[in-house]
Design a protein that fits this description.
With about 100 residues, this protein is mainly α. The chain has helices at about 10-20, 25-40, 45-70, 75-95.
Length: about 100
């Protein structure tokens, strides 16, 4: 997979870390994880739809808050990458039985 020249990996890492350290986001991810666990057990889990849900419910509002705090625009590619990373972490917790 080729990397994009303008992709900001530092911004992705920073946004992901700020999200990991917020209780509100952890609670929202717990709620999503319970729903995704049910879908996973039924065999109806769709990664693309789940990623869209994480992006819309968790990442986009936090990215807007980040933009307001630091005055820095968060590109859609970074939001998508963070949503994918957060979803992978949620699904890791589901598969290991933490949820």
């Amino acid at each position: 997979m080729a990397r994009k020249k303008n992709f900001d990996f530092e911004l992705q890492k920073e946004l992901n870390l700020t999200m990991e350290n917020e209780k509100e986001i952890y609670d929202q991810e717990g709620w999503l994880a319970k729903n995704y666990a049910k879908k996973w057990k039924k065999g109806k889990f769709n990664f693309a739809q789940a990623q869209k849900g994480v992006n819309n419910l968790i990442v986009t509002p936090r990215a807007r808050k980040y933009q307001n705090e630091f005055g820095m625009k968060v590109p859609n590619e970074v939001r998508s990458a963070v949503a994918k990373a957060r979803l992978r972490e949620i699904m890791r917790r589901v598969k290991e039985g933490e949820i």
